[in-house]
């Protein structure tokens, strides 16, 4: 069924049709920009500072963001990717017919090309005095306002992007009207660039591993499943890069990393999205203590590069990223914040009873490790605002991690928490193929087939390990959450351009 246009859209469509009838293309194939708005302003200010009388000519392009017709003159502002600049159009320069044409056919949101000379108005604003203009793209649907505007003390109602869900569904409009949102994604790009710079400078090799995998693994999560018609087999969107990256260590690539998308068929909340960006790296001949120090160094490099400071604001807190970060053994942290000593409860039944004594309602089907994980989520994570490393985790929720030499049930794993969020997860990686096979078998026996914590047996990965895998430290970090931290953003959907949303009825 054809879309029904609004009255405003019908008016704009009619203008586009009238331009066609006059032989004017409202969507031409070519533009001739000479400067960005920022470059044009800088060029004029440079000649102004030099005290010369050199004329700065410019051809600028951008979206019309304001229009004010005043008889024989019109003021407007255009916006491009670099900023805004004012346009000054007057009948004396263009002729009244051309000025009337501009006022008749150009609307807010249209893309325009304007040529002329830069000057400074009496009010002090650097402006383009327009000598020539043409349409680059006619906007049929008016852009919504970022918020309601106040004019002469009265609220002027617009179609606004005040509702977050509307902003996420129409991110293109959100970006067009909200410069703060554009800045978030510029910051995100700078964060990813700085992570690459840091790892590259430490002799890491950036690689790409399969997104479609015959066996999923490397994390505790439910995968998305698809079917390959020609191969006649199920394939899984990856939930982690881990098992493929560690295969590369077997092949004598000693330091590898990947920044890319993972996909997990799980719940959505302020820190989770089904499709998200991860950084994982693996470093031969390192253990989790070395990875702890490397993590601090890397995050500080990002802070220095992107923010220019190691003290960053987040939701009313000042986060101090200066190393060394606080380090707490997991069992000690739970005694401090939950009042439960997990070392005194060696079974799931005993730990569940201790939790019930604290008025908690543990899942009776949970393993001991999963109960501990729930305590971390309820008591540690939300209360760890300043950077904190929690280390030494239970073996049964860390099937790819090396056990501590003096405690087979505890593994060399740490998670770093900042601003009440888990930022990263890291291990001394298990490189004993016999131990790894036994872990897989344990999980197949102890976990239900539909339990997302269950890790499938990966025979090819075990084959790779049997060729010999060097001792190594591994690390995984959510880039989206790191972006939340550096942009003082509380919801992961704010830092993902097109987050997943439930279908509208």
Total DSSP E strands: 21
Name of the CATH class of the largest domain: Alpha Beta
N-to-C CA distance: 17 Å
Helical/strand content category: alpha+beta
Number of helices: 15
Fraction in beta strands:
25-35%
If classified by CATH, what would the architecture of the largest domain be? 2-Layer Sandwich
CATH superfamily of the largest domain, by name, is: Bira Bifunctional Protein, Domain 2
Protein described:
Strand 19 and strand 20 form a beta hairpin. Strands 8, 12, 13, 16, 17, 18, 19, 20 and 21 form a 9-stranded mixed β-sheet that branches. The chain has a 5-stranded mixed beta barrel with strand order 1-2-3-5-4. The longest helix has 23 residues, at 179-201. The protein has helices spanning 7-21, 37-49, 91-94, 96-105, 164-169, 171-177, 179-201, 242-250, 288-307, 330-338, 348-357, 368-380, 433-446, 459-466, 479-486; strands spanning 57-70, 73-79, 84-90, 111-120, 126-137, 149-151, 154-156, 205-206, 212-213, 225-228, 233-237, 255-263, 275-284, 311-314, 317-320, 326-329, 388-394, 403-404, 407-418, 421-428, 472-478. The protein is α+β, with helices and mostly antiparallel strands and 505 residues long. Mean pLDDT is 93; it is low at 150-159. It contains 15 helices and 21 strands. Helix 7 (179-201) crosses helix 15 (479-486) and helix 10 (330-338) crosses helix 12. It has 2 domains: 7-142, OB fold (Dihydrolipoamide Acetyltransferase, E2P), CATH 2.40.50; 179-211 and 238-325 and 386-494, Bira Bifunctional Protein, Domain 2 (BirA Bifunctional Protein, domain 2), CATH 3.30.930.10. Helices cover 33% and strands 27% of the residues. The protein is elongated and about 90 Å long.
């Amino acid at each position: 069924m054809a879309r029904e246009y609004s009255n405003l859209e019908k008016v704009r469509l009619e203008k586009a049709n009238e331009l066609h009838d006059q032989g004017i293309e409202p969507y031409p194939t070519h533009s001739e920009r000479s400067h960005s708005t920022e470059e044009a302003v800088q060029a004029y200010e440079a000649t102004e500072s030099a005290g010369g009388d050199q004329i700065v000519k410019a051809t600028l392009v951008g979206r019309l963001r304001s229009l004010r017709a005043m008889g024989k003159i019109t003021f407007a502002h255009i916006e491009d990717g670099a900023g805004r600049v004012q346009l000054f159009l007057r009948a004396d320069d263009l002729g009244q017919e051309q000025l009337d044409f501009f006022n008749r056919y150009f609307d807010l949101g249209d893309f325009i090309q304007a040529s002329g000379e830069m000057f400074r108005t009496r009010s002090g604003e650097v402006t383009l005095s327009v000598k020539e203009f043409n349409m680059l793209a006619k906007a049929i649907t008016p852009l919504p306002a970022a918020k309601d505007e106040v004019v002469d003390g009265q609220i002027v109602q617009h179609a606004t992007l005040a509702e977050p869900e509307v902003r996420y569904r129409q991110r293109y409009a959100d970006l067009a009207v909200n410069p703060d949102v554009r800045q978030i994604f510029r910051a995100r790009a700078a964060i990813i660039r700085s992570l690459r710079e840091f790892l590259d400078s430490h002799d890491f090799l950036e690689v790409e591993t399969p997104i479609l995998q015959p066996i999923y693994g490397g994390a505790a999560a439910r995968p998305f499943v698809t079917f390959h018609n020609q191969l006649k087999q199920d394939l899984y969107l990856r939930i982690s890069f881990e098992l493929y990256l560690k295969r590369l260590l077997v092949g004598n690539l000693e330091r590898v990393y990947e920044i890319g998308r993972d996909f997990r068929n799980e719940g959505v909340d302020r820190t989770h999205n089904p499709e998200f960006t991860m950084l994982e790296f693996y470093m031969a001949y390192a253990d989790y203590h070395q990875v702890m120090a490397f993590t601090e160094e890397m995050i500080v490099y990002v802070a220095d590069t992107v923010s220019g400071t190691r003290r960053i604001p987040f939701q009313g807190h000042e986060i101090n990223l200066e190393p060394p970060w606080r380090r707490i053994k997991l069992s000690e942290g739970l005694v401090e914040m939950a009042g439960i000593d997990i070392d005194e409860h060696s079974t799931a039944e005993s730990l569940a009873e201790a939790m019930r004594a604290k008025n908690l309602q543990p899942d009776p089907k949970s393993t001991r490790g999963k109960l501990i994980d729930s305590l971390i989520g309820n008591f540690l994570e939300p209360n760890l605002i300043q950077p904190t490393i929690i280390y030494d985790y239970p073996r049964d929720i860390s099937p790819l991690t090396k056990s501590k030499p003096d405690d087979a049930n505890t593994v060399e794993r740490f998670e770093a928490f900042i601003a009440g969020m888990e930022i990263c997860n890291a291990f001394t990686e298990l490189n004993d193929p016999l131990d790894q096979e036994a872990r897989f078998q344990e999980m197949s026996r102890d976990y239900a087939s539909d339990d997302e914590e269950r890790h499938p047996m990966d025979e090819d990965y075990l084959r790779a390990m049997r060729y010999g895998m060097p001792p190594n430290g591994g690390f995984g970090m959510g880039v989206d959450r790191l972006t939340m931290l550096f942009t003082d953003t509380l919801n992961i959907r704010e830092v993902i351009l097109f987050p997943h949303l439930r279908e509208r009825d």
